[in-house]
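Q: what sequence does this backbone want?
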């Protein structure tokens, strides 16, 4: 009976069967992709929650410590010391507000492009060094702004660059600071250099800022490389692969 059916029937049946199989494969693929996306999203939310917790916790601890110290000095009539501590409280509070502003900016879907992140880094550099009379230059390959990176990668990259620029402005006494981003063999190379006083890495103790940058570099699957000698300036570099964002 089946062999007597016309060819058109079998062609139609084959087309329907093939369509069904392809649809099944498509839905399985979408399910796996969604599952992986949700896993990445959960991990990212945990990371952001941890950042906010650490930032707010550290700020509250500092404010509590400073306020108690200020109160003691005020009770002893030492107004000069009280004013100094209050200034430190103000600096700590502004720093915390800035850090939280960065996190909120990062998770805003309107800032999802890498170009906007590059603009934010460049604006930060010009504002930071411009007030100190230091020349800041930002060079990047033409294809760099078109990269599509996951939010977690963009966040860590931005915070490393920001901390490195901040340290240079605070300690290097440089006249010129350069930030270079280039693409080489499937990776993004980031190099920050200054012509400042440099330092002896064996003599200078690594602070929390450097430790934080190294942790973020590890989260990016890379290492933070620092080259510096007294009187020879400082170079900080790291390289990351650039997988497609979800």
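A:
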């Amino acid at each position: 009976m089946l062999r007597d059916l016309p060819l058109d029937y079998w062609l139609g049946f084959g087309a329907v069967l093939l369509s069904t199989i392809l649809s099944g494969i498509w839905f399985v693929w979408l399910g796996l992709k969604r599952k992986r996306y949700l896993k990445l999203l959960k991990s990212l939310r945990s990371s952001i929650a941890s950042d906010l917790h650490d930032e707010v916790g550290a700020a509250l601890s500092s404010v509590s410590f400073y306020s108690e110290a200020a109160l003691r000095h005020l009770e002893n009539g030492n107004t000069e010391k009280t004013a100094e501590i209050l200034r430190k409280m103000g600096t700590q509070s502004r720093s915390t507000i800035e850090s939280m502003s960065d996190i909120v900016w990062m998770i805003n879907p309107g800032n999802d492009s890498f170009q906007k992140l590059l603009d934010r880094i460049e604006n930060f550099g010009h504002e930071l060094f411009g007030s100190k009379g230091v020349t800041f230059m930002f060079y990047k390959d033409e294809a760099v702004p078109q990269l599509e990176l996951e939010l977690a990668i963009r966040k860590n990259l931005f915070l490393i660059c920001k901390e490195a620029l901040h340290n240079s402005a605070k300690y290097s006494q440089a006249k010129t600071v350069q930030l270079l981003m280039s693409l080489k063999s499937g990776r993004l190379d980031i190099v920050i250099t200054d012509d400042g006083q440099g330092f002896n890495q064996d003599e200078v103790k690594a602070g929390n800022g450097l430790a934080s940058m190294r942790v973020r570099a590890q989260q990016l699957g890379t290492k933070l490389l620092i080259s510096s000698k007294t009187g020879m300036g400082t170079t900080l570099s790291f390289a990351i692969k650039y997988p497609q964002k979800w």
